[in-house]
Amino acid sequence: MAPHLSVVIPVYNEEANILHLWTRLSKVLRENFDDRGWEVVMTDDGSRDMSLDMLLEIARLEPRLKVVEFNKNYGQHAAIFAAFAQTTGQVIVTMDADLQNPPEEIPKLVAKMDEGFDIVGGLRQGRQANDSVFRTMPSKIVNAITRKTTGINLHDYGCMLRAYNREVIDAILNCRERSSFIPALANSFAKRITEIPVAHAERAAGDSKYGFWRLINLQFDLLTSFSLLPLQMLSVLGVAISALGFMLFIGIMIYRFIDPAGTVEGIFTLFAILFFFIGCQFIAFGLLGEYIGRIYVEVRDRPRYMIKKVHKRE
Ligand code: UDP
Ligand code: MG
Fold it and tell me: What angle do CA 34, 37, 42 make, to 5 degrees?
């Protein structure tokens, strides 16, 4: 019989956390969900440490753990996606492997789902002080832009401790697009969405896998896959600049009539204006390029990831 709850966890070089995570997680699941049934699906996202061996060793003893093995590292969201495909539960909870999301919060999320919501998001209480500003500031910006572009007012997209119902997950699995940021994608398929506060801890061990460039990339993903707003802004900017240019032309003509000999000092102003326009053009090209690049990636239609093996017992 299909279990009620599926927990999905992406794992990338988390050997220092796995045992502790499993101890806490399995305790919570056994105490709260043994009657309704549960399973855990973890994707090993091409870890280069002992993570995979540890997962397989646990799975040998606990048949309710399925392990998806990637042949290399494809990133957190690809890993979650691949794990979704293996879930059979009615309620699917995603979380991180680094114990920043306490497993003890899962029953709260599931209880909220029982009230009939499609998605229940976690709202992290008090981001930890040792998450440096370089990590929290970008997240804040990401959250704000996501809110603006996707139009859904969730406060904490970065929090991976979230619960989805089966229908939302099936809709996500039908998406063939490559750059999918799961929380935003899921929200576009759900009607009843809510958030509850969840505890948030420091990363238990190991380092964050997100550097500056990965965050920038994630931001572009969000912007271009959920909105055409930047393209529309380009046209608005173009109109504004042309209007300015036209007014300037009129101004210069008038100036010439008033003072026919004094044209030379105007050249420097013109240079300044020219550089401004050139800058605008480069920004515009860059944005267009970003969209076109994404179209190119999309039409190549390569698989998003390659699964080496799914370790599960029937
Ligand atoms: N992760 C992954 N593949 C990656 C990067 C991260 O599966 O390429 C996993 C990682 O093991 C963790 C989760 O995604 O379970 C979140 O990563 P991390 O804690 O580094 O992100 P942060 O908390 O700094 O946002
Ligand atoms: Mg983390």
Answer: 105
Atom of ligand 1 nearest to the CA of 11: 11
- Edge-to-edge strand list for the sheet holding 65-70: 193-198, 119-124, 162-165, 91-94, 5-11, 38-44, 65-70, 307-311
pTM over 0.85? The answer is no
List pLDDT tens digits, range 251-269. 888 877 887 776 556 677 7
Please report the atom of ligand 1 found closest to the CA of residue 75: 8
Q: How far is the CA of 19 from the centre of ligand 2 (A)?
A: 16
Domain boundaries, the chain: 5-227+303-312, 229-300
Most confident of 75-79, 164-168, 207-211, 245-249: 164-168
Residue 188 beta carbon below 6 angstroms from any ligand 1 atom: no
The verdict on domain 5-227+303-312 having CATH code 3.90.550.10 is yes
CA of 76 to the centre of ligand 1 (A): 6
The environment of the single-atom ion ligand 2, i.e. residues with CB closer than 5 A, is 96, 98, 100, 203
The response to whether residue 11 sits with its C-beta less than 6 Å from ligand 1 reads: yes
Decide the pairing of beta strands 119-124 and 193-198. parallel
CA of 99 to the centre of ligand 2 (A): 8
Predicted confidence (pLDDT) per residue in 212-227, tens digit: 788 777 777 777 777 7
